Amino acid sequence: MPDRQNADMIGNHVSSIESNWRPIINTLDWEVEPDELFRPDPTGGTWFPGARIDALHNLLLRHLDTHSDRLALHWEGEPGDRESLTYRELADDVATFTAALQKLGVGAGDRVALHTGWLPSTAVAMLACTGLGAPWTLIPVSLPVEALSQKFAQLNPTLVVTQDGAWRHGSIIPTKHRVDDALAAIESVEHTIVVRRTGMDVAWFVGDHWYSDLLESNRDRRHAARFVSPTSAVDVDTTLCRALVASHDSPALLTSHTVGQLLPNIAAFHRAIRGPGNLWCAGDASWVVSQWHGLLGPLLFGDTAILYEGTLDIPNRDRAGQIISRFNVSTFLTAPSVMRSIREWEDESHNQANSGIRRIITAGEAVEPELKAWLRERFKAHGTEVIDGWGQVLLGGIVYLRHASATMPDCGLHVIADDGQTIRPGETGEMVLTTPLPGQVRSWEGPGSSSTRDKQQRFGPDRYATGDRVTFSTTGEVIHHGRLDDLVSISGQLISLSAVENVIDDHPFVHSSSALVIRREGLGRAVAAVVATVPEASGAVDFEVDDSSIASEIMNSVHDVLGGLGRPRAVVFVDAGTVDLPKIELAEEVTARLQRGDTWLRLSG
Question: Quick one: 426 exposed, middle or buried, by C-beta within 10 A (0-12, 13-18, 19+)?
Fold first, then answer.
């Protein structure tokens, strides 16, 4: 009987996959059509067996015959400069940069690290690497040297693309200088390509190249690079890009995303939300939602992508509304943290956003009830749809949109108790997916690889345990409460609380620590640290510990090792026994005691 039930379940999967995914697969051009969409097997099944596809053709080249003069992207820099490229102009730059990369010896399988913000050259580099079969990974420009060096060491790239300096929040980040320092102990990098963005002076070394010089010197080779590419059509299991994802261990997981995983899922999302006007994903370039759904999605359908540099409150807090109006944005995709900022600013950007925006989609972290109510009150009254999207990097991006006007293929969402049984509506448990998805990652690197796979499959090989704690309401709404493990989503990026604790515990005056997530009115979710200190430094006599100095050192240490999102926004000093209290209890106490603007606090008793 179990074998019969299993056979019926597999048959149902194949049938639903055919009906749900066939219309999406038909939006792509295949050099070799798949033998079938999904072939079940004991390891979880194979998507698109036997198929070959040209990713660059689908993203760019196929649009040249029909609408080469259509705008491929709009870009706005933080100082206010702007650039727009048609599909023909973008194709020319991609072909030229492809020729330059080939001349530098970059080819299929070579790893490329992109350490840039959102620039037109970032899009060009991503597409050129895609055409060559050289997997790319985008690293945040805000990372300090130590954290950046760790990313490079794990990626092991042969080529780095960076910029002289990066505009961010009215200041210039010395990106090239940081890259030089971070690469000091990295032997794999043969060339560094530098985009001249700010005009600041930078050190120059053997193997450094200006991006503009490479374009200028390779213009005559662009046609050969565009139309003669031995790796243009590849098997669907060829890696398109890689992503660094926080895990319980350090370093992070390095996930591999193939063309057969990413393109169908990107197509499914964009097909679901596509309509009059443009999609704008307001997020950092290092956020995979920005890369996959904000850039590649529009390009896949021949639409216009919108990119912006820096932050949304520079040069003024009305910037989001101005971009929405200027570039005919009808769908606004962003993280809840951005909407919290817009709510806090309370300026005219709300009115401008309401005037033309058709749909707001949040993704990357849970939306608390207060923000959800504000979104509906502020925007829904003006006819704007408010949708909460869900997905994971390990699933290829956003996979769940349940709305009358925007629906993606069924992912078999269930809420499961610890014993593996499906719970009733209104109860809380773990979100588990029971239907195979093409975007699910099958390959990753890192010390936590085996434990990650075990946790995903703890309810069986045909189920995907997401690690997210949710309630499936009686009205069919999925209410997200956060993670079941120590991974937390801050501004759409996963942060490991255990990694934060490891850095804090290395401080000589720290006895023990507990990193947790708090909610602060108007600011949303943030990391805080509860710390028990030793009375004096090792070997020191009559040394009084200053709480303010230790708090500052802790914050700076976490920032240097893990980056800004992992940095505690507040440090709360307690006795050693308090650190061991449940994190939920600690978070409630810390949230209640901290005042707005506090960066440290000592609790007694």
Answer: exposed
